[in-house]
Design brief:
alpha+beta; 4-stranded antiparallel beta sheet; 3-stranded antiparallel beta sheet; elongated
Length: 156
């Protein structure tokens, strides 16, 4: 389960809310402020992934708490590399008989346009995307605005 998906599904539970910052998901009773969290979930690859605060435990029903803990369990069972949101960059205007073209790499150094191919890397995390934009061949405001204008979230 991806981080954004976890936050969204927690927010769908009656009486419970979640907010994400850079490294933590704050889970709290909806009628309270985030500062009164009862569960912190680390989104980094750290051994201490959950921190409860029993004094702030919410007054919500058993079924809501069961849903929450099932979501947290599913999230923790997801390998870290699969938790991060991934993005791909369709290269508009470049079409082939195989379909739309995407920014692609096979080695993390050379980038090219290619139709969807599961054997090649065509989706990137936010940090990988920032790293790509810092490569000399993409170091210009033109590439950044082009990529950011077309970037799309993917579940692949």
């Amino acid at each position: 389960m991806r981080i954004n998906e976890l936050v969204s599904k927690i927010n769908d539970i009656d009486g419970i809310s979640a907010e994400l910052d850079d490294v933590l998901v704050y889970v709290y009773q909806s009628s309270w402020d985030r500062k009164k969290w009862f569960l912190l979930i680390s989104v980094t690859d750290s051994p201490e992934e959950i921190i409860p605060s029993w004094s702030n435990f919410p007054a919500v029903g058993f079924s809501e708490m069961a849903k929450l803990f099932a979501l947290v369990d599913e999230f923790l069972k997801t390998p870290f590399k699969n938790r991060l949101q991934r993005y791909r960059v369709p290269l508009r205007g470049l079409e082939s008989d195989n379909g739309p073209q995407y920014l692609t790499t096979s080695d993390g150094v050379n980038y090219f346009a290619c139709a969807y191919n599961p054997r090649l890397k065509q989706s990137f995390t936010e940090s990988e995307f920032v790293e790509i934009l810092n490569f000399p061949q993409f170091k210009s405001t033109y590439w950044e605005s082009l990529f950011r204008g077309f970037i799309e979230e993917t579940t692949e």
